[in-house]
Amino acid sequence: MVKIIVDTREPAIIPLLLLKLGIDVERQPVTPGDYILASDCAVERKTIQDFFNSLYSGRLFEQTERLRASYAKPILVIEGDVKEELLSRQNPRAFWGALLKLQMGYNLPTINTHDPLETADLLVTLAKQLQTRSKEEHIHPKHKPKLLTEKEMQIYAVCSLPGVGENLAVRLLKHFGSVRRVYSASKTELTKVEGIGEVKAEQITRLLDKPFTEDKNEQNIFNKSTFALDR
After folding, report:
1. 20 to 30 A Cα–Cα from 179, which one of 24, 59, 205, 217?
2. Residue 163 — pLDDT band, cuts 50, 70, 90?
């Protein structure tokens, strides 16, 4: 069976789609990359918004260098409607400039997918090709972690909350001033932040308030038998 290792920080929708498509999915912390398809191939997935955020913050090329240093066959997937995103940007040429630098300067193959389903289809197709050719029994991820700044650790801590991406995490931190204040905010306080409605505020506070219980017999959430999804 074809196997893909998925970083634990990736959204659940893509691993679920991979399971539905017959892929053996293993979730573990991965860096660099988000999806390890073979011992020499890693895929970094970015939404179009994430791409711009990492470009402007300076993280894009640092991530690219670590990816290329670790894997012989690195790939970048940009997920989302590029045309629509560029229409809302004041400087769309920044995107084209970055794309050209990645492909021509770093020799990094870059592919655009429209949504998570297209991303999953791409990952499955590539993983099958690579693993059929190599016939390796085990995938060995390369670990080259980045030393995070305190600011980045604050953002990642808030990103662990349900439905919170990097942009929303930054807005929450700006609004409340610290990670502790974000975590202690009430539902009413959370809804005052742009991007958080009643439902998301309820999901966040419910998770933070839920008592932890350990069940040794509980199955892993990504076990195939847990899901009965129809395409």
Report:
1. 59
2. confident
CB 171 within 8 A of CB 195: yes
> Does one domain contain both 203 and 170?
yes
Other beta carbons less than 10 A from residue 149's beta carbon: 9
Within this chain, do residues 62 and 122 fall inside the same structural domain, yes or no? yes
Task: Please list the alpha-helical segments (H only) found in the chain.
Answer: 13-20, 48-57, 59-70, 82-87, 93-100, 116-134, 150-159, 166-176, 179-184, 187-190, 198-209
Please classify residue 107 by burial: count the beta carbons closer than 10 Å to its beta carbon, then call 0-12 exposed, 13-18 middle and 19+ buried: exposed
Sign of the CA dihedral running 17, 145, 143, 78 = positive
Pairing status of strand 35-38 against strand 41-47? antiparallel
Rounded Cα–Cα distance for residues 226 and 231 (Å): 16
| pLDDT grade for 227, boundaries at 50, 70 and 90 | very low
| Residue 231, pLDDT score | 38
Boundaries of domain holding 58: 3-134
**Residue at token pair 């099958």:** 128
In order of 41, 103, 115, 125, the CA distances from 98 in angstroms are 22, 9, 21, 26
CA distances for 196 relative to 2, 157, 164, 179, angstroms: 38, 17, 9, 16
Tell whether 98 is covered by a domain: yes
Q: 224 CB contacts (<8 Å, ≥6 apart)?
A: 19
Question: What tokens were used for 38?
Answer: 């073979």
